[in-house]
Amino acid sequence: MTSPSASSRKALSKIACNRLQKELMEWQVNPPAGFKHKVTDNLQRWVIEVNGAPGTLYANEIYQLQVDFPEHYPMEAPQIFLPRESFARGNHPCEPHIAFPAIITESLTVDLGSAFDYKQSECTNVFPHQSLDLALSLLSPEIVQEAMTSPSASSRKALSKIACNRLQKELMEWQVNPPAGFKHKVTDNLQRWVIEVNGAPGTLYANEIYQLQVDFPEHYPMEAPQVVFIPPAPLHPHIYSNGHICLDILYDSWSPAMTVSSICISILSMLSSSTVKQRPTDNDRYVKNCRNGRSPKETRWWFHDDKV
After folding, report:
1. Active site residues per annotation
2. At residue 4, does pLDDT exceed 80?
């Protein structure tokens, strides 16, 4: 039996995304002993390293669980697999790729010592009701690109482990202390964030709502993310109608010390300081030149005016 391919799975619902992010936060605060998640950027597939408990038949053995979440998790059970390569590390007679029906509880549960019942070299798919939070993990970096569902996935390299760890950390900090005026829209793609922007009170953009799209490169934060407004973009002398933003910290002045939160604060500050709502003078020419899908990071920006 083989695991579902990325192309055959439906995207996670908002409820499922919220639930899985909650489980991830709980895992990071209180990880269960003997388990380790592999951080990547696919929320819909977790890969968890399992260390056999001391004093059991599986002591000093290491396995991997693959958990594929359905669209309507947790109302629908995920599929739990022991990938074939996981069994190369252990010595047992089981068929090396078995799908287990997970029991829906407050947390996913797994216990190797109970999940396998050896009787004449046969395995049974028993899942005990024990509390164990499963960590978020995804495909290995080498094959993440094949599983990504974003239309532009083919043009982006998968996130490095450093980038994944950094984004997981930023996401947790955001959830604990989100920047005022911004809301992260939960999806199952760690490499692309969509952020709702609310115009600050007392400014030209008060009561207006826009959306930012943030695409993270392979080597974030050493390399700046691509940040654009999803059209319709706000009318601003430094924002083009295609959503591209002329802001130095997104390009030449980027620093690895910056975060998504600091980017958002800078953009809101730029909006709030504007005294006029209008497009850049070269808007039509620039947008025409970008019709082939050119990234704003390919533009040679001239930062000649920091006052609007």
Report:
1. 246
2. no
